[in-house]
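Objective 1.3, modelling of assemblies. Example input:
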Amino acid sequence: MSTSATITAAIGLDEAAAFIWAEGELLDRLAYKEWLPLWAGGHYVIPIDRDASDPVDALNIAYDDATMREARVKRLLSGFSMSSAPPARTVRSASRFVVEESAPGALTVRCAQILVEYKYGRTRTLAADVTYRLVRTDAGLRMAGKSILLLNSDEDLFGIGYLL
Amino acid sequence: MTDPANELVREDRVHTSLYTDPALFDAEMDRIFKNSWVWVAHASELPGPNTFKTAHVGLEPVIVTRDKAGEVHVLLNRCRHRAASVCEKKKGKASVFVCPYHGWSYAPDGALRMVPHAKGYPADFDKDEFPLLSLRTESYNGMIYATFRDDIMPLEEWLGPARKWIDLFMKQGAGFGVKALGEHKFRFPGNWKIQLENTTDAYHFPIVHKTFLDSLDEETEDVFDVLGQGGWVEDLGNGHSVMVMIPDLIDLEDNLDAPIPERFAALADELRAEGHDEALVRKVVRAVGGTGFNLNMFPNIACSMAFFRVLRPVSVDETEIQHIAIGMDGGPAPANRMRLRLHEHFQGPMGFGTPDDAEGWERVQRGAQAGQDVWIMVNRGVAAPDGVAEPGHNAGDVSSETGMRAAYRMWKRMMEA
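Predicted structure (tokens):
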């Protein structure tokens, strides 16, 4: 079996959903070191402006390439960031999957994510439309982009000491 | 009020009730925010005729408008008929503001233009009696302020020696002018003065922001060694102060021949490749990282290294903060992109700095529930290095709490007035 045949096989919605659920579970239990290798290039983006044409020229909440993702994970796990040591506990779920674009070995899928966080006796909800760019590699599905558009992206938020 | 301020603020300490007493908060909104110059906008946020943004002066929502002739107005966001807000957008273009309830419409200068079904009012109904209420508005070097008071000192006098530092801060426009590029907005469950203090608090920086410092290359980490460069904090009067952390970055038009820092080398190459001459490249690269000081202006605005920090009291234990990113108006795109990335790196709800600040401020508010009669100490500081502060100004070393004492002295003056 050649690798390229595997890589160009279409990505089905079931397979994508399973990946996204597994990724969410990793993030909820702060398994950030297992999360980093799930990337194959691209950016981790949390935009502010809901109409920005290209986040590179806009102010974002996060706009991380591989280097910044690694730096962010290092910071969150360091034990020296008071907002992350410990962070709020989180539980998130993803649903309402919509395929935006399908190509051989690649899928862009958008879903609804509801995250509840808990800290200091307080629970807060963050809802978002999350768009994943997934690609098939010989090591399995990988993210080539993830954009988290919070429902209240352009409103007042609060310090977030974990990964969305 | 029977002069509680005198009991609650001493030269070296302030009483915990300043963070926790709702009655004091109400008094502050009245005595401070209705009697001072409150920052509402930067000129670049109103980029042409008939543009606007919404803001607050203290607790009161306002619309900041630029009319057709270019004049700026600050209007209470309340229809003169039955009080509905006339604008709920953050910013935009509008030549008229129409109340959604009964359709009264107002010009950008606040004048009442049209009243639907006007014949339901007596013949002597005079539209001139019902404009949107307009606050006194003045600006300095692009910084737009408003006040409820017609009889307080002019803005320039209110700012006093802070003006020099505003002028220095605006040099990061690299000759293009400063432009607002976007903003981070967040709240923390704590009193507004906790944030006011923080802007002149270099002492916390290496501790709270250790993970930010760890994320920098070695050369940049040295630049951000804010306690180790002979900086100082200087009382500028009227509650304003400046904290100089990186003396080399006070004047961005100085030292243009210095070697380009490693972290800006790629940007310099990109600018050269775009055909900019070496003088401009050096000016832009020197400006791109921002200044080396925080100018803290009482009561609600700071020019903080490379951005505007706006604070808005919401209640005694709730405060909203905006970090407005700025760039070069019409400057090279790669330079503005770098400014956006630098801002995202530290600021905002998921920056490498802000969430730890916000957590710290929340911890202050939580801790202040204990020992209600214990004092908050702001007595830290030794003499400023020789020859750095303006002669005659009260100044201390960079990690001194001189700026906090300056702010609380103004707080006391206004609360006793």
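The mean pLDDT of chain B is 96.
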